[in-house]
Amino acid sequence: MRITRPQAAPDLDPAAVDLADPQLYATGDPHAVWLALRERHPVWRQTLPDGRSFWSVTRYHDVNDVLRDHTRFTSERGTLLSTLAVDDPAGGKMMAASDPPTHTAMREPLSKVLSARALRRWEPRIRQMVCRLIAPLADGDAWDIAEAAADFPMAFTGTLMGLPERDWPRLTRLTTMAIAPEDGEFSEGRGTLVAAHHELFEYFADHLHATRDAADDSLVGFLRGMTVDGGRRLRQDEIVYNCYSLLLGANVTTPHAVAGTVLAFIEEPAQYARLTLDPGVVSRAVEEGLRWSSPANHFMRYTRRETELSGVRLGAGEAVVAWLGSANRDLRVFADPFTFDVARSPNRHVAFGFGPHYCVGAPLARIALRILFEEIVRHVDGFEQAGPVEHLASNFVAGIKHLPVTARLRPGAAERLAAAKAAEPHREAVP
Hints:
The chain is built from 17 helices and 14 strands. The protein has 431 residues and is of the alpha+beta class. It has a single domain (14-422), classed as CATH 1.10.630.10. Strands 1-2-10-7-3 form a five-stranded mixed sheet. Strands 4-14-11 form a three-stranded antiparallel sheet. Helix 6 packs across helix 16, helix 12 (236-267) crosses helix 14 and helix 14 packs across helix 16 (362-379). The longest helix has 32 residues, at 236-267.
C-alpha cells in the first residue's frame, strides 16, 4: 500500500470511495481517505453493489473497542472482508475466528510456546537466516528486498511447524494468493481464493496424516496434543484451520514490515543515519516500522447486539471493519503521525491487533525483525532505490511486492556477506 503524508483531510464524499476495493491499496491513496474519515465520518457504513454492507471504523480508540470487546463484537462469523456476509466455516474452530472461552483455551498454551522467552534459543538460527537473506547485497547489483523478504518467514515458521523445506515456496505463494486473490501476479484465474484455501487445507490434512505415527515436537505436533473444552483434543479440522492461521499470520506480516521500513529509510535517510549512530535504537525502529507499514490492514467483527461507536448507532448482526493502518495514524494518539521517527516513544501501535486477539506470533515477528535490522545496520551504510515500487492489490495486507534496492556497504561487510552467501544453511532439529 502506498504510504502518503497528507497535510490536511481532503474534501471527499465517502460514498464515492470503496474501501473494500483491493486496487485502492495498490494504486490509490487510502491514507488520505482514512484521514478524511477520521475527521468527519469516523464510523461510516458502506454498501457494496451486491447489497452487502459493512461499517468502517477508523479512529484508534474505536478500533481498540471493536477488537477487544468480544461481548459486543464477535469474531466467530468471520474476521476478514473476504468472508463478508458469509459465515466463516472456521468460526469456533480456528483461534482467530473464536471468542472466549474457546479462544482462551487455544491461545493460552500457544502463547507460552511462542513467547519471547521460549523462542530465545532460536535467535542464533534466525540471525544466520538473516545473514543469508541479505547476502545478495554483497554483489552490488539491484536486489528486490520485498521479493526476498516474502520467503523470509518460512525459514523459521516452516521449521517451527515441521514442514518440509521443499514445500516452502509453494506455501508462501499460496498464502499470498489467499490474501491477494485479485493481484495479477498471484491470481491463478477465477476462484483463486477458494483454490488457495482448498490447497492449504488439503496440504495440512495430508501432513497430519503423514506424520500421525511420528514423534512430532513441532508446532503442528503441539496443536495435535492440545486439549480444549475440559480435556478433549482438537479435532483434525480444528488443527488444520489453526495451522493455516499460524502460517498465514507469519507470511503476511513480517515481509511487508521489512519492505515498508526499508522504503521509509530510503525516503528518510536521516532516520536511518540515527540507527547507524546508535544501534540501540533498533528495537524502537522496529516498532515504528510496524506502525508505519501496518501490514495487517484490517480485521472484521460482527455486532452481537445494538451498540454505539463515536455517537453512531450500529444494529445487531452488522459487519464492522477496524482499519489498523488508519488507527496507527490517529493524531489523537500519535504526535506527528505522518512522520517516520525511529525513536518514537511511546508507540502504542495496533499493527498486531489489540485485546484478546493480539497476534500470538508477535514475539516471533519482533525477534526476527529486530535481528534483521541489527544485521542491516551492521552491514549497510545506506540504501538507494533501484527501480519502481509495486504494491500488493489487497484490502487485507498493506504490502509491497517489489522494491529493488542497492546498498552502500560498511567496511568489511561485503566479505562477511559473501561468506554468509557461500555457507550451507545450518540444519537444526525442530524443537
